[in-house]
Amino acid sequence: MRSRMAGMWWGTAVEAPDPGALARFYSELLDWPIGHEEPGTAIVAPPQGSVYLVFQQATDYQPPVWPPIDGEQRPMIHFDFQVGDLDSAVADAIALGATLASAQPQENVRVLLDPAGHPFCLCLDQE
Description:
Layout: E1 10-16, H1 19-30, E2 34-38, E3 41-44, E4 51-57, E5 79-83, H2 86-95, E6 99-100, E7 109-113, E8 119-124
C-alpha cells in the first residue's frame, strides 16, 4: 500500500458469537498473546510483529458451511497456517476445540473448523 508507513500495523477482523472465546482459541493455537479484550472485541497479535487478528461480536451469527453449499453461508475468508508436523498440529487444534472438516481437498493440508465454525487450514511445510 503506497500510504503504508514503517511500524504501521495491519490485520483482519473476524465475526464470532463469542469473540473472547474465539480469541483464546487462536491465542492458544498460535501461541500469540491476547493484546486487548473488552466486551464484544478481543485482539490476538504475535509478540514480535505488527499484524493482528481481531474478533468482534456478531449478533445473529451464522457459521459458514464447509464445503460450500448453494444457498448457505459461504466462508468469506479462511486462515492458512504452515506446520512442520501435520498430524500433531491437527491433534493440538482438536484438543483446543477445533473439529476436523469432513471434506479434505489436499493430501498435505487439513481443513478444520474453529469453535465458531470458521474453516482454517493447517498446511504441511514441505521443505
